[in-house]
Amino acid sequence: MAVKNNPLSSIEVSGPIPAHLARSVIEESLRNAILDGRLPCGTAIRQQALASLFGVSRMPVREALRQLEAQGLLQVVQHKGAVVAPLIEDDALQTYELRLLLEAQALCLSLPLLTEADFETAAGYIEALEAETDLSRTGTLNRQFHQALYCKAPNKKLLALIDAGLIEEERFLRFNLEQMNLGKLCQDDHRALLRHARSRDIEACINELERHLQRGVKAITHYLDSQKPKQP
């Protein structure tokens, strides 16, 4: 009799987890497994299996799954429960339109408060992106660069919404950056964005951000078109 493969077998748990850390540990472990592909799209995530794996009750498991659903990494499907979401949704283009509004507002709020140390941090992420050969790390560094420019915005709810969009993009980039061939173009965009930020030119920053996100829109459009069934 064949033994069913356990999708959670790739997740390692090191010893007992303190109760107050259970939700965050489960959330981070699942997020990493989804982002690096160990838990592929469509994988069903069972609450009881997770609770047994981490040695906790189902309450922190439910809380972690709700957080990942809010970040767009999980979907709740009838009769299946929580499943790993597709790499990209059909409404992704609308998401990019919303991202521009949110990230432009974050720039307006954060830019006047950024210090030279913040700019150096952002520049460091660009250098790391230029040198990175592991495409699984590129999406993470891209997200960290943008977060470095938005980090001083005092509206935490705004930052949480932006992070959700960046995490969605990170996952897409991990699996599609090579065929999109966007690496060098993205760094040119990032350098221009950082240059305008250092000059405290908010209008130029927002214009550059719009151009940068439009590249993402083109890549997403190409990807969605490639997934459509071929006409006979």
UniProtKB/TrEMBL annotation:
Transcription regulation is among the record's keywords: yes
Signal peptide extent: none
Domain HTH gntR-type, chain residue ranges per copy: 20-87
Keywords: DNA-binding, Transcription, Transcription regulation
Pfam family, one: GntR
The keyword Metal-binding belongs to this UniProt entry's keyword annotation: no
This protein's name: GntR family transcriptional regulator
Source organism of this protein record: Pseudomonas versuta
